[in-house]
Amino acid sequence: MSTEDHPAPRSLAEALRGRDDASLAALLRSRPDLITPVPTDLTQLATRAGTRASVVRALERLDRFALQTAEALAVSADPAAYDELLGLMAGDAHDPEVTGALPAALAALREQALVWGADDRLRLVRTARELLAPSPQHPSPTGLGPSVRESTAGMSPGRIQEIVATAGLPSTHDSVSAVDALTALFTHRRRMRKLLSEAPAESLEVLERLVWGPPYGQVTHDPAPRLRWLIDRGLLLPTAPGTVVLPREVALHLREGRAHRAPEPLPPVVEPAATHRPQVVDGTAAGQAYTALATVEELLKDWDEGGPAVLRAGGLSVRDLKRTAVALDLPEPVAAFWVELAYAAGLIASDGEADERYAATPAYDDWRERPSAERWARLAEVWLTATRTSGLVGGRDVKERALSALGPGLDRSAAPEVRHRVLGLLAALPEGTAPAADSVLARLRWERPLRGPHGPQDTDDLRSRLARWTLTEAELLGVTGRGALSAQGRALLGAPPGGTPAREPKRPALAGGPTASEGPGDKLPVHHSDHRASAAVLDPLSPAEQAVATVAAARILTPLLPEPLDHVLLQADLTAVAPGPLKRPLAELLGVLADVESKGGATVYRFTPASVRRALDAGRSASDLHAFLAEHSRTPVPQPLTYLIDDVARRHGHLRVGAASAYVRCDDDTILNEILADKRSAGLRLRRLAPTVLAAQADPAALLEGLRAMGYAPAAESAEGDVLITRAHAHRSPPRTPPAPVPDGPPVPDTTLLSAAIRAIRAGDLASTTPRKPSETSPLTPGALPRTASAETLATVQAAVLTGEALWIGYVNAEGTASQRVIAPVRVEGGFVTAYDHTADEVRTYPLHRITGVAELAED
């Protein structure tokens, strides 16, 4: 097909106009900010694609090689031919890896509308060129300086002629031809080699220091001979008083044509650190999952009667976080992770009362009743999609305010994408393979160099920290085991077993570059030589797909978790051993009757007088406790434990404490005599009111604790004289909605939205580009709506009904949105016109008073 059939586009809008729907869909999917809101036509889409904010966002989402390609275009001619770009990327040696990778990189830039034009006229969008082009304030990422023409723009004609003469070139009649001659010299390999062969060794050392950037240097008023030799021949050109620059053409000669010192066409390989049997990985991860559930339950149990107070600015205080870490027997960063995960899952929230505190939510009670695997899957799903980042706790925000757990400022919108990508890299490895953390970070930096608009950020950037936290948190949660992705972790991502991602990236191929054009459904050519480096990435799942994947993960985990037990092993040393997780009723009552002494694969409980008294205070009788232990013990109830329960029960409630400030009464006055005679009771300030009643200055709670410390077992009583049963009060917050993740920009549009948006854009573009007949009453102004009087509008529409011709109209809808449409009127009556709308491809009815004007279409 000849070029006359498809002339080269003269603008980005024309280039977009030549795309098919699949190509436009790929653009809008990769840059969703372009359809928020939906542009009226392709011209507006192109304008929006060239805005600074949108271009910066698109550049930050390029991989390193695509970004290097864009940087090379920024220092090339505008427009540039593909061969020139190839020379800048592959150099004079024509690196085969770079040569093979460049077409796909260029196609990616075209897909995102950062580059447009045919292969012989490649254009980087102007905003991207401004962001990436070199300047004294913002040197180019390539390390190249301005061209000879740019560097000599303010130089006097006489000085330019002096440089030309010293360089051995014939003098010219004007500065333009002189600069052209100097540029031709610097871009001619053989002539430049001859010129540099005459340079002093000290001058060549200066060039070597500047060749890879920065290209600027400082000179004195009287430069040294080695600098004077370079300045006289234009190899260094002055840009400001005391500053010289190495021209771009000279640097490229010294670099052998390459714009980058080290082009990176291939992503770094994720190196394995260790390999384990998949069964070992899954078993280890399942153990971690069980520990995760136990940790969250212990956290919520610790806060069951009301958790820590909420700071005025929101969040936990440093002291409360330390207390929580001590209660969980964990380091503070790990405790912060579990607190934040429970909060993100909606299990804890502020109670909203006057003395505001954190407490479990009603959702926690529902979550606790579900099977263990489902509870874990819920936590894992929340972690995968949450934007709150516990790793930031203890740091400072931009205003140097401390970041606290459960407080504001912990959301990082990039967190879900980084977590998903890290796990995706693990999923691409063979089963049981744990990656080297440094190689994962290197791969992520290649995929998203995370550069600002004028240069790379430091190596310890947020994305790298998020990746490190992801590897740690995945191990804590049981998504990984021994550093390798577990079976339930693969299911959570929607990846099949075996280390092969389930789905290829959804990137429709585009015609562009020297590769052959593929169909809309074909994949872009894979240019990587190492299949491990080019493993396909997993697309994030939609909410519906994620729900299915979560169920699958729970199903895989279920047989790996230990089955809850209904028994313990009682021992003669007043301990009970739970050889595994206990069923909930057994665990709850045993937790009241005994104290946890140690945890691990088996939990050890110890019975003490205080723990038995706690069970009696909760309303249990001695016979209830004996029956409970006999029912749930696989070993005979030891005699010492039976004696302990009977002894505490015999003395429990013998003393009664009420409010006077407080009083003690007992039917046995000898016990009261013993209390009064005991020196430890002096602090209670007891006084006998009657043979069986003592009064105290202390309140009832302090009196109870004081008598228990003395070895007695008093019971509290009500005003009516009944024994008060003290059960733990489970404090709950009102129903709360879990914190919503903060999106990283506009969401990626689904297929339905893309189809509707593309149809609307094309319709608007048809209306704005359809040729119209010029009219004296309605002059044609590009982009403006037609304006005609109401009588003229009505007459033109009625005439079109009779002739069957199409019209161009301006229309303002009920919301005040103006648009241009091409219609074929069918009927006019009652102040409405019924017409076939070519832009919407359907019959519609329009009120005549909302039509701003009409114009006839020009004949083809």
TrEMBL record:
InterPro entries, per the entry: WYL_dom, XPB/Ssl2_N
UniProt keyword annotation of Amino-acid biosynthesis present: no
Bias-annotated ranges (Pro residues): 735-749
All residue ranges annotated as the Helicase XPB/Ssl2 N-terminal domain in the record: 568-690
Biased composition (Polar residues): 767-780
Region: Disordered, residue numbers: 133-154, 492-531, 729-751, 765-787
Name recorded for this polypeptide: Helicase-associated domain-containing protein
Classification of source organism: Bacteria, Bacillati, Actinomycetota, Actinomycetes, Kitasatosporales
